[in-house]
Each structure stands twice: as C-alpha cells, then as structure tokens.
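Hey, why these numbers?
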Amino acid sequence: MSVNPINIEILEVIDAIDRRGSFAKAAEELNKATSALSYAIQKLEEQLGITVFQREGRRSVLTPAGQVILSDGRVILNATKHLAEKAKEIATGWEPKLRIALESTVNHSIFFEVLNTFLQEHESLEIDLSESVLNGGWEALENDRIDLLVGALGPAPQQKGFRAVSIENSEMIPVISKQHPQAHLLNQPDKMRNILPSLRRIVTHDTATANITRNVGLSVGKRILYVQTMDQKIYAQLAGLGIGHLPKHRIQAYLERGELLKLPELQAAQTNNDNFIAWKISHKGKALQTLSQRLINAKWL
C-alpha cells in the first residue's frame, strides 16, 4: 500500500506559503530553510503528478489543484489544532463538554455575553444548551441530563447533592395584550377584577417528566393554554389569547410600545422565590467551576 504524501507537515508548509506569498517568508515563519520547503513541495508534486504552486511575478500562487489541497487541508489543520487543545484541557482537568439548562425566565442576553467571553478562551469546549421550566431543570440536574442549571426557580431541593447559589431574580410582570378583548377594562378596575377568574391563563409547561410539576403566577383558573417555551408564551399573550406573568427584560419593548399592558392589581400574585445557578457538588470539572463562577459574578438585572 502506497504512503499518502499529504501529511500535516506538508499542509502547514502549503498554508504558510499561501499566506506569506513566498517560500522565503514561509520558511522564516516555520523556522526552516527555504530549500527544505522547496524540496518538500517538489517531492509532493512528483508523488501526486501535479503542480501545486506557480510563479506570478514575485509571488508563489497556488494552482487550482493546490487550492483544493489547501482548502480541505485547512479544515484538517484546524481539526488537529482543536484536537490538541481538547486533549490538553482534558489532561489538566477540563471536561470536553458542558450540558447547560437555562430557565425560561432568565436573562438570556446576560448569559450569552458571559458564555461568549468564556468560549473565546476555550474554543474547543462543546456546549449543549436546553431550556427548562420550574422543576424540570432540577430534575434534569438530579438525573445527570445536564451539568449546569442557570436561573432555576427556588426553593432549591435539599439533600440532592446540589450546590446552589442565589442570583438576582428576574422581574416577572403580569400583563395583558392590547389585542385582548377585555384589555379596555383596565380603565375599570372593579370590572377587571371581577372577570379575571374567567380569563384564560397562558402557562409554560413544567419540563419535569418524572417528579411533581408545579405552576406559579397566574396559573390558577379554569381556562388554561399550555405552551412549551417562553417565546411561545410571549407570542400567545401578544395575540390576546390570555394573560400571565412575563419576564420584564423580555417584554420591555412591548411595554414601551403599549402592545402589552400591566395588570397592577395582580402584582401580589408574583412569586418571591429566588433564582439559582446550580450543579452537583460531585462535579469537579474545571470548565464547570470556571463558567459557573463567572455566571454567579454576572449582573443579572
């Protein structure tokens, strides 16, 4: 079986020559003699029966065949770089992947700002994100479906081996859409108060599948529309399908434009439970510990 003449070393040589424009500058970057690079390219061309570089003035330019080698070759070079980084991180206690659940009410923009900075420093780390609601996040953490839970609504379960750190609460506001048939009754508080029990509530499903599920806020009532995500809940309420609590940071623009209207007499129905960042104490990975600490230090409001 013949030996494949294309290897990592020759790909690095072709890449350097293409970026620097000449054999001499590439040799300087790679700390090799120009003659060594010329010999390596000549040997490759002989073995493949092709021309890789051609001269255009003072520059060495890839031929179409050389461009194909370099295009796919750079994918291989990047993969080997990430592989080396991943192996090094694992050897020093950095896990290769983190599974994270975000509570539906948490401020996603803050989370992704922190995550962006973190991943710029650890590019090889794989992240798997999911959305959780109420007890669903705690259940996923207990059953090892996730490594980190962000923004989970308290109280934190006891005697589960969790490390739970409180963060600033997401402000939840009870609202009704201006499109809702009864929105005009906001100017008549007594009538609004009387009809509230009959108005449909929009409720996000608790993502728990085995443990006891729960509801908070305006979920008490005879008419309920269940949705799967916070985005669905927001759009359902904007359409006037019902009422419910929504995170202020997600609906501020709708409030300012008057598309959603506050239900001030229902403020007392809001929950006062804390929000938490949580993980299992037994999880000692450096990626988890580093990211969780940055999230704890973030300003969530």
